Amino acid sequence: MDWPLLAALDTEERGRILRAARRRSYARGDVLVNEGDPSDSLHLVAAGRLAVRVSTPDGDHATINLLGPGDYFGELSLLDGRPRVRSATIIALEPAECLTLSAAEFRDLRARHRAADQLLLALMAGRIDELSARLLEATYDSLDQRVHRRLAELADLYGAADGPVVVPLTQEQLAELVGGTRPSVNLVLQALVSEGVVELGRGRITVIDRAWLPR
C-alpha cells in the first residue's frame, strides 16, 4: 500500500510507523467507530471504502464523506493527552482493512523518533488542506460544480483508469455529500444524463464520461 501521507518520511521512518500500527479487518456494514466515542487512535485505510456519517440537528444522519485506500481518520487523538471524542461515525461500505495506531503507542513512538512528529504534521496539513478546499467549494461553487466535482472524485475512488465506473450510491447519498437536496441534485444528474456523462440506476450512478466532469 502506497501511503501519500507518509511520503515525507524516509524508508526507515515509514517502517517504524507501520510496524507500530495494528491491522484490523471489517465486514460490510461494520461500524469502525461511533460518533461520541472516546477518540484514542489513528486509522489508516488500507483497503475498502468507508462512509463518514454525522448526526444532524433534527436527529437524522448524513453522509458527509467517503474514504478509500490511502485516506485516514482519527488524527486529532494524537495531538495531546486531552480526552477527545469521535466527531463522526465511520461505517464500512464493503470489506475493509485499516492500520490502527493508538494514541498511547504514538506517544511512545514520538518520544523515541522524530518521524512521529513529521507524521503528525503531515496528517494535520492534509486535513487543513481538505477542509479549506471544502469551505471554498461550499462558499463559492454552484451546486452543478459541486456535483460534477464529487462525481469525479467518486469515479476515482471506485474505478480504474479507463471505462465506465459504477458508483454504488443513491441520489440521496450524493445529495448529502454535496450539501444539496435530492430534487435539486436530480436536476443536475438529469442534465448529465442528457449529455451522456452518467447513467442512473437503482441505488447506483454510472459515470460514463469521466473526462467531461473536470471541464
From TrEMBL:
It comes from the Bacteria. Keywords: DNA-binding, Transcription, Transcription regulation. SMART domains: cNMP, HTH_CRP. InterPro entries: cNMP-bd_CS, cNMP-bd_dom, cNMP-bd_dom_sf, Env_Response_Regulators, HTH_CRP, RmlC-like_jellyroll, WH-like_DNA-bd_sf, WH_DNA-bd_sf. Signal peptide: none annotated. Pfam families: cNMP_binding, HTH_Crp_2. Residues 141-211 form the HTH crp-type domain. Residues 5-109 form the Cyclic nucleotide-binding domain. PANTHER family: CRP FAMILY TRANSCRIPTIONAL REGULATORY PROTEIN, HTH-TYPE TRANSCRIPTIONAL REGULATOR ARCR. This is Crp/Fnr family transcriptional regulator. It comes from Nocardioides hankookensis.
